[in-house]
């Protein structure tokens, strides 16, 4: 793993990915923040040594380096998922590469379904805690202790200081921001009525198919991290309608300007 990380880092440094301060992982339908970045370098995933390749049609598959909010940033335009056939080590490999390039903070976004029926689609949730239902850990491999502490504390996986800042930014900009627990499942199928009821019982406010592996690895690396979910559908088991993927993408796009404001203003303050 160390060798693979070094090869990817050397390749990217040679191509202008020099001194990133903040890493950003962009979820489904949240790619327009790139328009606010003064881009200095970009590279398709399939050209980067040892990188997986995004296979989801609405994930672009590029690593982008530039300036946003007065800071040097590196953005993942498109992420990887277990449901694409990747291992949890593959899914989180880019986090390790960004940390090795020099990022000091990580910001993560995703699209998720609202389990908490007080939350409505098109709104945003700040993840305060999570439930890992992906059936494994990105730290469960031989030699992980060479990259960081094996038994990582997860009592407070999301950075409290950045969370406070983003809540204040939301208030200043009149952005309705919920706070809650995110459950991460494998997918790619959506949940049944019984599964939505189960998720509510165990304490989830939203459900998605990503994010938690990256958060675990960020904590493994001692990298302060926060995550925002755009709530793209309402998961009411008593009034469940067939999944509408175009509407999910549309809801993510609807919330995108607010996400851009939250992330950009946060980057200015960290």
From TrEMBL:
MF-aspect GO terms: purine-nucleoside phosphorylase activity
Biological or metabolic pathway of the protein: Purine metabolism; purine nucleoside salvage
Keywords per UniProt: Glycosyltransferase, Transferase
Keyword match ATP-binding: no
CDD domains: PNP-EcPNPII_like
Enzyme class: transferase
Every Nucleoside phosphorylase domain range: 22-268
GO cellular component, one term: cytoplasm
BP-aspect Gene Ontology terms: nucleoside metabolic process
Alphabetical list of InterPro entries matching this protein: Nucleoside_phosphorylase_d, Nucleoside_phosphorylase_sf, Pur_Nuc_Pase_Ino/Guo-sp, Purine_phosphorylase
Family: Belongs to the PNP/MTAP phosphorylase family.
Name of this chain's protein: Purine nucleoside phosphorylase
Native source organism of the sequence: Rasiella rasia
